[in-house]
Amino acid sequence: MKRESIVPAACAAVTYTVLCHPHHHTVFIVLTDGPGNKDDITRSKNEGKELSKEEKQRLRKQKKQQKKQKERKNEKSETEKEKTPVSLLPPPRPVATQKAPSALPAPASAPIPVPASAPFHSSPAPSPADKPAKSKAELKAERRARQETDRAAKQPGSSSSGIKTKVPLSELNPVVKRLPEHVQVDDPAVVKRLAKKLERQQIPLRSDYGYKVSLFSHLHQYSRKAPLTQQLSIPSTVIHPSIVRLGLQYSQGIVAGSNARSVALLHAFKQVIRDYTTPPNEELSRDLVNKLKPYISFLNQCRPLSASMGNAIKYIKKEISNIPSQCKEEEAKTKLLTCIDRYIEEKIVLAAKAISKYAIEKISDGDVILVYGCSSLVNNILCEAFEKSRKFRVIVVDSRPRLEGREALRRLVQRGISCTYVLISALSYILPEVSKVFLGAHALLANGYVMSRVGTSQIALVARTFNVPVLVCCETYKFCEKVQTDSFVSNELDDPDDLMVTRKGKTQLENWQDVSSLGLLNLVYDVTPPDFVDLVITDLGMIPCTSVPVVLRVKNLDQ
Amino acid sequence: QLEQELVEYFRTQVRQDPEVPSAVAAIRTLLEFLKRDQTGETILGLRENLTQTIRRLEEADSSVAVSSGGELFLRFISLTSLEHPDLSQCKKVMVERGELFLKKISLSRSKVAKLCHTFIKDGAKILTHSSSRVVLKVLESAAADKKRFTVYVTESQPDSAGQMADKLQNLNIPVTVVLDAAVGYIMEKVDLVIVGAEGVVESGGIINKIGTYQLAVCSKAHNKPFYVVAESFKFVRLYPLNQQDVPERFKYKADTLKAVEDLAEEHPMIDYTPPSLITLLFTDLGVLTPSAVSDELIKLYL
């Protein structure tokens, strides 16, 4: 069964020969369409008229021809690997961009799935002979991907209804923003697309684990006991070892926390760049970006990328593609390494110093400060304030299952700050004592909402009722262009087994999988509206929460 | 000493023209300083001297407006210094621009009045607090527009600002003076509340004569619009989180700060109104919502 969709743009006039593919038991007719007919079709399409039946059929046949041609070419270069059928070489077309916090390439959709008769090979470790052809194939894959996104923009219409629906060209020209795939896990088409993309990049697909609560069934849920690295062959020729290590550190929670993850990512990328050599006939600026894409997919599979990591990746990709082509490789590599070092220094280290400077103004003697979880920035601020001999005490609020507050408590007590430790259920009990609340953030969204560890919005809400000022500390590199008003649309689901706890030798939820009506939900992030936040302290200064889009605009002007 | 002269100059300015905003007087004084200053050799030195003068002026008059005016002038100075490396030429340009700036801001009050008086409907009952020259200007232009309205003025202790009532009577506007404590009582009768501001802070809130905060709370409870009229040179780079967070040097009169040992005994003269209680701010930059104030400040300072 083949699914098809119509190619909207003008096709290059090509003459075709008879193809009798050994794997497919169909023969295609010679189709040498004169340019006149083709122009007719394109003209009618441009005018937005519905194609007549014959014209549609003709188009379909043309497409199939070109696909077969492509396949033959690929078959010659690669012997084992089964290639999904390619569509025709597109003329310059509008590239559909995809707004995703992780800068993933647009997933390639296969309108015509692999025919059932053909054997399905997937080689996790391709033979070395395939490598040079692979780079060309990857370029082709990208072109395909771009095309598929354009086609996929109309796909929901065509796949749901049996008839071919046609979208006039004008609708495709504006940038098509699609939902990122990681919030569409319950849509099988999207999952299939993702699987195909990962297969192409030779990264194993991580399967979801356990029963998902229906409200969050559109998100991935992985088990920590099955890290992605188990499915890789060691040594992996596709993924750089430092990236593999990083992925494992992410998925096991060894490296956790927004800043820590970004810094670890940047260091791993530095190692990748150091070990990189440009293959012959390739440009560093384009090839390195392509090399990074499978790494990013891999890391995304290990643990979904955070907003700060997304911004860091965007920056690196921009820097790499801005390398002039006449630049020598060594020079380019050192330039990139210094760029990354400078990014870390400016956006993270110096920003933390600037934020501490502003925040210390807000801490007065005799203050009782409430913090939640473990934010590296907030801990930094409190330690600095203590060094500047401000007299205050801290209340650390913690929550299961991560119990990150214990780490914060350890750090603060080591410095000599007097601390109190409570669980989040005791929040309304201690809030009357509190004079200020300091919160860290995972990301600041474009509409002023604060995305942070789950439980933060609860603290902000209760603090508001007690009239306690809430201060959020966030560096500007965590500001992202996303807009979200609730915590359901885009979130992260952690391993549900973390919720099981063993007390007095008994594990209550041990067999939760057997109970069909029971689902465990372990959310990682939540979203706080700006009315609950009194002040945001960034490296640019103190701003109200509603001014985040202004900062984004100013930042974009600078760039 | 030059600084003493300047403080005298400032005081005479305020005395001679009671209509002039204190920030404008401060800027005028600083401009005088620029003209008279002979000792400055470097731009950094000039800046230091200016900062000293501003501090001296703040001691003379501790209102927020002096502080904001001074800071604005300083910022404007630092911008000029980037363009002209030569000191004497720089000074000349500064003085020129300073005069231009002064001219612009002396017109700001009428700009505000022009924007605001259209919000006063015919037959409206207005409540205002203490004596504000900007509000007076607004009411004047509304009266000139042949609108009929009545005004309720609070008595505004500790320094009762009854002069507002007299001035309004001179304009033939029916006016009633109410006690500060009667604000809640009168709120159901009024249609809108207009107050001036001594300073507009980064969050969009205002610092004004004490009693403004409860006026704002009452108007919010009764769903009456709470309008603030302020010129743009009153925008100040403060961000108070609550009443306690307002710096002490603004809360009390300059003489009190110098004379008294334990400030906890003294009664503060100003309070802070958070942006959530303010409907709109009328400035010479336009009609702004409280969240747009931060936008303007970022444009101005960052």
UniProtKB/TrEMBL annotation, chain A:
PANTHER family per UniProt: TRANSLATION INITIATION FACTOR EIF-2B, TRANSLATION INITIATION FACTOR EIF-2B SUBUNIT DELTA
Keyword Zinc-finger recorded: no
Basic residues composition bias: residue spans: 58-71
Record localization: Cytoplasm, Cytosol
Protein name: Translation initiation factor eIF2B subunit delta
Matches recorded under InterPro entries: IF-2B-related (IPR000649), IF_2B-like_C (IPR042529), NagB/RpiA_transferase-like (IPR037171)
GO BP of this protein: animal organ development; central nervous system development
Subunit structure, as described in the record: Component of the translation initiation factor 2B (eIF2B) complex which is a heterodecamer of two sets of five different subunits: alpha, beta, gamma, delta and epsilon. Subunits alpha, beta and delta comprise a regulatory subcomplex and subunits epsilon and gamma comprise a catalytic subcomplex. Within the complex, the hexameric regulatory complex resides at the center, with the two heterodimeric catalytic subcomplexes bound on opposite sides.
Major site of localization recorded for this protein: cytoplasm
Gene Ontology CC annotations of this record: cytosol; eukaryotic translation initiation factor 2B complex
Function field: Acts as a component of the translation initiation factor 2B (eIF2B) complex, which catalyzes the exchange of GDP for GTP on eukaryotic initiation factor 2 (eIF2) gamma subunit. Its guanine nucleotide exchange factor activity is repressed when bound to eIF2 complex phosphorylated on the alpha subunit, thereby limiting the amount of methionyl-initiator methionine tRNA available to the ribosome and consequently global translation is repressed.
Residue stretches of biased makeup (Basic and acidic residues): 36-57, 72-84, 131-153
Keywords: Cytoplasm, Initiation factor, Protein biosynthesis
Pfam families cross-referenced by the UniProt entry: IF-2B
Similarity-based family: Belongs to the eIF-2B alpha/beta/delta subunits family.
Region (Disordered): 33-167
UniProtKB/TrEMBL annotation, chain B:
Predominant place of localization: cytoplasm
Subcellular location: Cytoplasm, Cytosol
GO CC annotations on file: cytosol; eukaryotic translation initiation factor 2B complex
Keyword annotations from UniProtKB, A to Z: Cytoplasm, Initiation factor, Protein biosynthesis
Function comment: Acts as a component of the translation initiation factor 2B (eIF2B) complex, which catalyzes the exchange of GDP for GTP on eukaryotic initiation factor 2 (eIF2) gamma subunit. Its guanine nucleotide exchange factor activity is repressed when bound to eIF2 complex phosphorylated on the alpha subunit, thereby limiting the amount of methionyl-initiator methionine tRNA available to the ribosome and consequently global translation is repressed.
Subunit composition and interactions: Component of the translation initiation factor 2B (eIF2B) complex which is a heterodecamer of two sets of five different subunits: alpha, beta, gamma, delta and epsilon. Subunits alpha, beta and delta comprise a regulatory subcomplex and subunits epsilon and gamma comprise a catalytic subcomplex. Within the complex, the hexameric regulatory complex resides at the center, with the two heterodimeric catalytic subcomplexes bound on opposite sides.
Similarity remark: Belongs to the eIF-2B alpha/beta/delta subunits family.
Protein name per UniProt: Translation initiation factor eIF2B subunit alpha
Lineage of the organism: Eukaryota, Metazoa, Chordata, Craniata, Vertebrata
Gene: EIF2B1
